[in-house]
Sequence to fold (313 residues):
Amino acid sequence: MNTVELLRERAKSNEPLAKYTTARIGGPADLLIEARTAEELVALCQRADEISLPYLVLGGGANMLVSDLGVRGLVIVNRTKEIKFIIRDISARIEVDSGVVLATLARDCIERGLAGFEWAVGVPGTIGGAIVGNAGAHGSDTGANLYLAKVMRRGYAPEYWTPRQLAFGYRQSALKRFSPVDRPVVLGALFDLKRDHRTNLERRASEFHAKRKASQPPGATIGSMFKNPPNDYAGRLIEAAGLKGTMHGGAMISPVHANFFVNVSGVAKASDVKALLDLAHDTVLKKFDVNLELEIELIGEWAGVQAELEQGD
Fold:
């Protein structure tokens, strides 16, 4: 099936993006299609470039707040899922599609006695998003074991980027400097991992997962909303500002961890979360002179939402 037929047969019009985000929030995409293989992902992106159709590649839908007004153009949901293991005596190299769920990869590595992704058990999102934002936890991150990432710049053929080219930092990479609709697409990655006893890996993963479960709220959330500032924690500052448990519409600053905002009963709007983001940012700045930076990304059309919020004030 060629790309034109693929779009005609499987694309959905005005598809609500709330179905595809961890927070269960988001307005409609003009067009939406799922890419099931890496070849389909490449072909769809290249076709969109050819006809100058704006497009956004969506992974697991974590760490992003999609506007109630939705996303113009084409949204490609990345469902690629191939993993290849090349296991040696004391190490292994794995080749992973960018749509592979991070927690799935972590469990598969543990089962094979491969160390390096224990921190990711229970972490939402996909490999592609993890590379863009250098996702991490418990003292490690995605960039720690990356050998190469397969990336496709808009209008170009796929190529491999080294960790140096990706310029990893705290929840940051060179890719995140692009806006989501201009960003090069991560197609896959190669990781180098060390061998270890499966029991050791299971123990570490269990400890990390228990710590995460105890410190983070259940329910539909986006993830950590703000980056931790130097020598401090965003959640501590928001709590110290007296905002734990604050609600706006269907969204709430979690009483468990103040750097997580919860979609209460699944009825929150993106504008509710945005109002809480602005409140937390402005209150912390006023009380502690700390300018919190977003860890999540705002996706879609926001100008009209901001105008509505200002009119509401």
